[in-house]
Specification:
NADH Oxidase; globular; alpha+beta; about 180 residues; homodimer
């Protein structure tokens, strides 16, 4: 799928998924696309865990309340380390966001659906920390988001956005 | 260019650029790709200014010290608003990072080179604020990054990264 078409086709899908497994080779393509994203001062602060074992998926979804993506046959959990880029500056949020966007595009290009789920797991109930314990994640990493992966069985729709031309201008602020 | 190949081919280019202008239609494709990125709670916090007027580029580069991307025939300046997504939570950093990644991939797919320049303009000398004043950007927006755009005249190299397989595992943390 061509890059520009993939970007235009990417959707945030919150419905039910087909149970068919995602082949490991495709999960590896998605993981590697994420890890090829740029990172501030090349600190490579993002790490990933792909989950396709139904028993582990069930353990994770038992703590993800309210449920989301619970019928997807795979998920990728996004881990970050708050590594200093220079002086007191960090770019780990930018780093994992770019990695997630690369993965969402690759998921779309491979014909799967997904959704960037972050606020749900990093809010005050700290669901991400419970997921990290289930996965044996060391203390210095933080689980900040996950992406369910599979084929949508309901209609996936593009988000409604402001007209794009109302959000850019040329050579000076004029929008 | 296919999505997965584009992701693998994207480079951070810091050298000199060919002076040939980037056609407006291609700049619009890049801007729209950025604005199609997802945003937390669909708050669409990112806005963009494309600069291709040589006089405006010269004004901007006069404040970008030390210089970077100063020979590029175009640049895109990235603006954000710290809009609350819900309660006290914001996702504007994730939002603009995803928009930047979409633009870097589109730039690559169209055969151009670029680099994500952020720390350079948001550091304590607040170069981004000076750029924003030149562009007439209102107070509620913050200029957080820019992307030079053009064709590299020197060799563009992939960043050296840790082996990708050292940054992911399946079903539990094992890396």
């Amino acid at each position: 799928m061509r890059t520009i078409e993939t970007i235009a086709a990417r959707k945030s899908y919150r419905g039910k998924y087909d149970a068919a497994p995602v082949p490991r080779e495709e999960l590896v393509q998605i993981l590697e696309a994420g890890l090829r994203a740029p990172s501030g001062c090349n600190k490579q602060t993002t790490s990933l865990i792909a989950v396709d074992d139904p028993a582990v998926l069930a353990q994770l979804h038992a703590v993800i309340q309210p449920p989301i993506g619970e019928t997807a046959p795979a998920m990728i959990c996004v881990l970050t380390r708050r590594i200093i880029a220079y002086r007191d500056r960090t770019y780990y949020v930018q780093d994992y966001a770019a990695a997630i966007e690369n993965m969402l595009l690759t998921i779309t290009a491979l014909g799967y659906d997904s959704c960037w789920i972050e606020g749900h797991v990093t809010d005050v109930d700290r669901i991400g920390d419970q997921m990290a314990r289930i996965l044996g994640v060391p203390e210095e990493y933080e689980l900040v988001a996950f992406l369910p992966i599979g084929k949508a069985v309901e209609e996936a729709k593009l988000a409604k956005k402001l007209p794009l031309e109302s959000r850019y201008s040329f050579n000076r602020f004029d929008m």
